[in-house]
Amino acid sequence: MLVFILGGVQVAIEETLEDSFCAELVEPAQHGMAFGVLATVNGAGDFLSSVIVGLLWSAFGPTLAFGYSALLFTAGAVLVARIR
Predict the structure, then answer these.
(1) Which residue of 13, 32, 69, 84 lies most exposed, with the fewest beta carbons within 10 A?
(2) How many other C-beta atoms can be found within 10 angstroms of the C-beta atom of residue 54?
(3) Are 1 and 13 contacting, i.e. CB atoms less than 8 angstroms apart?
């Protein structure tokens, strides 16, 4: 039960920060387009990542699936940290 609560808190924090970060990166006149692109990329990424992690989990087990997720998370965090 605690895992689901922590997962919900993480999603709430991540989505709020993501939208705020997106708003800071683009001019106010482009906010509509930026949020639309963000939602499209998120939807496609969520679908693709679910398929990939599901296949990894089925073929190799949860360790590799979670390792793959952690690797992509770390790479994304490094890329975001490098944005000026």
Answers:
(1) 84
(2) 11
(3) no
